[in-house]
Structure formats: structure tokens, C-alpha cells
Specification:
about 70 residues; single chain; transmembrane; mainly alpha; about 80% helix; elongated; membrane; about 0% strand; transmembrane helix
């Protein structure tokens, strides 16, 4: 049975990776001392999570647009 790539999969994958990065960012931010380099690491993980979410949304939009042809 051939697998079909629906727009839900990249959106789910992006959201899942964003949630993992968000959880890591929150844990690092809570444990980090104020002014330490770990705070920048927490912001980096948060930004990475937003990037994963945006990439998943763009891929889902492209798949949805190509599915309409």
C-alpha cells in the first residue's frame, strides 16, 4: 500500500519538534542563573522551535497547494 503524504504530517512534525524545543528551552531557562550564557541557549532553543513550526507550516501549505492541482 503506497504511503500518501498529506499536509497534516509536516505540520504535526513541525509542531512536535517545536514542542520539544520549547520544553528544553523552558527547562534550561528555569535552571539557568540570570546573566549566564545558558539564558542565550534557552532563547536559541526557543528560536529553533519557532523555526521548526514555521517550516512545518510552510511545507503543509505547499502540499495543500499542490494537492489542489
Amino acid at each position: 500500500m503506497p504511503a500518501e503524504l498529506t499536509p497534516d504530517f509536516p505540520l504535526f512534525l513541525g509542531l512536535m519538534l517545536a514542542a520539544i524545543c520549547g520544553a528544553v528551552a523552558a527547562l534550561v531557562y528555569v535552571v539557568a542563573l540570570p546573566g549566564s550564557p545558558a539564558v542565550a541557549l534557552a532563547y536559541g532553543f526557543g528560536g529553533l522551535g519557532l523555526t521548526f513550526l514555521a517550516m512545518g507550516a510552510v511545507a503543509a501549505g505547499i502540499l495543500r497547494a499542490l494537492d489542489g492541482e
